[in-house]
Specification:
Helix content: 55-70%
Order of helices and strands: HEEHH
Subcellular location: Mitochondrion inner membrane
Strand order of the largest sheet: 1-2
Strand content: under 5%
Keywords: Membrane, Mitochondrion, Mitochondrion inner membrane, Transmembrane, Transmembrane helix
Largest sheet: 2 strands, antiparallel
Shape: elongated
InterPro entries: Cox20
Distance between the termini: 79 Å
GO cellular component, one term: mitochondrial inner membrane
Organism: Poecilia latipinna (sailfin molly)
């Protein structure tokens, strides 16, 4: 067995604080990256306006927490909405397959602008 093949079966993910597997959890990676950006921005802006180092760190940490949680919930809500839309589309496709060619097919209804009988 070669050295490269040893880890091919198992993929290691990055665990944050030993509990959150960032690679496998939906929205975790993006939320943490946005949180890091939010913390840097909040801390630097507060430091530039007040020149207080300790308070700037506190503001940066609060910015990280708020940005991470805010983006986490935003992303999860969008994922839930997307799953609902996919479920509705799949149901519609199933119904089209079931009703295609029958009298219940909505695409098979006679139109008002075309004559229904022979001319």
């Amino acid at each position: 067995m070669m050295a490269g093949e040893k880890g091919a079966g198992q993929e290691k993910g990055f665990k944050l604080l030993g509990i959150l597997d960032v690679q496998r959890t939906p929205c975790a990676r993006d939320a943490i990256l946005h949180g890091a950006g939010g913390s840097v921005a909040a801390g630097m802006l507060f430091f530039l306006s007040t020149s207080r180092v300790r308070r700037s760190f506190d503001v940066g940490f609060a910015g990280f927490m708020l940005t991470t949680l805010g983006f986490w919930f935003y992303c999860r809500m969008n994922n839930a909405k997307l799953r609902v839309q996919q479920r509705v589309i799949q149901e519609g496709i199933r119904n089209k397959v079931v009703y295609e060619g029958t009298s219940l097919d909505p695409t098979n209804r006679p139109r008002a602008d075309t004559p229904s009988g022979p001319s």
